[in-house]
């Protein structure tokens, strides 16, 4: 079984709270004995795959497989295509001194039609925001946020929109469904989905 969940903002990618009052996957009514094949930070949203098959977890998480994950990041400020160039070279993260592997990054035109976040992001009237898309094959802790901060554009909202060539289904936050055989093959692909929108 392989399940796609639209993980909401503010929910841990696990079934047990670390401190009292935390929201967890337990609120999503998932089948028993499944666990997340990867993770999204509590303040990130989007596609999370769950399974009871341990070999699938290795396929998704082991760096040697180079499994791509695609994100939409709403950042503070107005980066240009030139600002994103360090990502294709490997960008020094803001803490820990880790240099990321090269990744794909582009500006999104038009902006993606994601539903509003609950609660909404903080906005400053004098500072615009912009959406960018990044496709990574590694998954260091809070990597996308560290990468955008390292080039001067902090991430305000982060949504995982694809794993392999399988895109986030049309699910409301907190909803899930089991993948079909074809969707399962797409999720296991080591290529990202076809880009949508102009860069």
Would you write up a description of this structure?
By secondary structure, the protein is of the alpha+beta class. The protein has a single domain, classed as 2-Layer Sandwich (Pseudouridine synthase), CATH 3.30.2350.10. 15% of the residues lie in helices and 25% in strands. The protein has four helices and nine strands. The chain has helices at 54-61, 85-89, 143-150, 181-188; strands at residues 2-7, 35-36, 45-51, 69-76, 104-107, 129-136, 155-163, 166-167, 176-178. Strands 1, 2, 3, 4, 5, 6, 7, 8 and 9 form a nine-stranded mixed beta sheet that branches. Strand 7 (155-163) and strand 8 form a beta hairpin. The radius of gyration is 16 Å and the shape is globular. The N and C termini lie far apart (36 Å). The mean pLDDT is 89.
Q: Which labels suit this protein?
A:
Pseudouridine synthase; 4 helices; 9-stranded mixed sheet; 199 residues; alpha+beta
How are the elements arranged and paired?
Elements: E1 2-7, E2 35-36, E3 45-51, H1 54-61, E4 69-76, H2 85-89, E5 104-107, E6 129-136, H3 143-150, E7 155-163, E8 166-167, E9 176-178, H4 181-188
Parallel strand pairs: 3-7
Antiparallel strand pairs: 1-3, 1-9, 2-3, 4-6, 4-7, 5-6, 7-8
Low-confidence stretches are none
Task: Write down the overall mean pLDDT.
Answer: 89
Question: Which percent bin holds the helix content?
Answer: 10-25%
Total number of strands: 9
- CATH H-level homologous superfamily name: Pseudouridine synthase
Strand fraction equals 15-25%
Biggest pleated sheet: 9 strands, mixed
Name given to the CATH architecture: 2-Layer Sandwich
Q: Secondary-structure element order, as H and E?
A: EEEHEHEEHEEEH
Our measurement of the CA-to-CA distance between the termini, rounded to an integer number of angstroms, reads: 36 Å
Provide the CATH topology: Pseudouridine synthase
**Spatial extent as radius of gyration:** 16 Å
Shape: globular
Instruction: Count up the helices.
Output: 4
Give the CATH level 1 class: Alpha Beta
Structural class from helices and strands?
alpha+beta
Tally of discrete structural domains? 1
